[in-house]
Write the structure tokens for this entry.
Amino acid sequence: MFLIALSIVLSGLYMILILIFIVGWSRNYTFEPKGNESISTFISVIVACKNEQQNIEHLISYIAQQSHQNFELIIVNDHSTDSTKSIVKQVIAALPKAKLIDAVGFGKKNALREGIQQSTADMIVTIDADCTPTFHWLESIVCFQHRLPSDLIIGPVKNIESQDIFLKIQALEFVSLVASGGAAAGAKMPILCNAANLAFTRETWLKSNSDLHDEEQSGDDIFLLQSVKKRGGVIRFLKSEAAFVNTKPATSLKEFLNQRRRWASKSPSYTDWKIILVAVLVFSMAIVELLLLYRALESFKFLIVFCGFFITKFLLDSLFLQMIRKFFHLTNIWIETFFLSVFYPFYIVFVAISALVFKPKSWK
């Protein structure tokens, strides 16, 4: 009976969370940069890279063609063992406002820190080396900051589109994380962001520098958000299609799980109670669902409870995804959400436990 009662309580809490996300998403200001806005804000774009020879030239070319040209590009090479460094040198030779830095320390967090320390702009933007920004990416950030001054701006990110079913389900899971972060920010309870598309002021970063947990390999984004939030800083989600950054999905299940394990490994260092509460709720939902499935194999009563629990979560997830589908250009919501719902509890439990027991030692 305890398991049944727990499933009912968790379902109720999850419903409240989804309703908060729905309200928060609707409160986000839908932003589009006006073509006649002439804002000359200088920006420092920081890219930390390690063994990105297949992606870095592509990224640099897209940044070089931005509609907003008043920026410097700083690429920090984190001890790459492939041709990344030589490719960057060759490509940026024709870009007067770009430079390459060889990181002294190790890890993405350190690479970003060294890049920021050598930057000169008051506005800093980070993007990952395997990403592709839109033509108006920097322009949308500058205009948004001009209209709605913020300490931290969370930009939208999505996976590059694919017809492969594994990549489509992965993309939906990734979008659900990004949209949840955006919705939570709209609800004034920011819990998620992604360094693949993040903007913040230099003053914000300097105030938060001591809160970034250098002992952790990753988490530069979440720890920054957590620090800004603790100080009462302004955190907004940039709800604009002009601000999108597309990122490459993991090409195999192993790569996908390793990536998610890296993301989950920093969770013991979280101090914000809302971030912790949401993480515990999501993990508890997955655990209870698996326990109900196990009991359902031997009891018709638990089979009914399991079906009710699964359907409730599926409908709540679908409701939220249906709300964000237009912004993220999602299709086949119901079918892909169903497959993701089947896969999700196994995946989340495995990732959470393995990340804590076998903590990843590298960001790549």
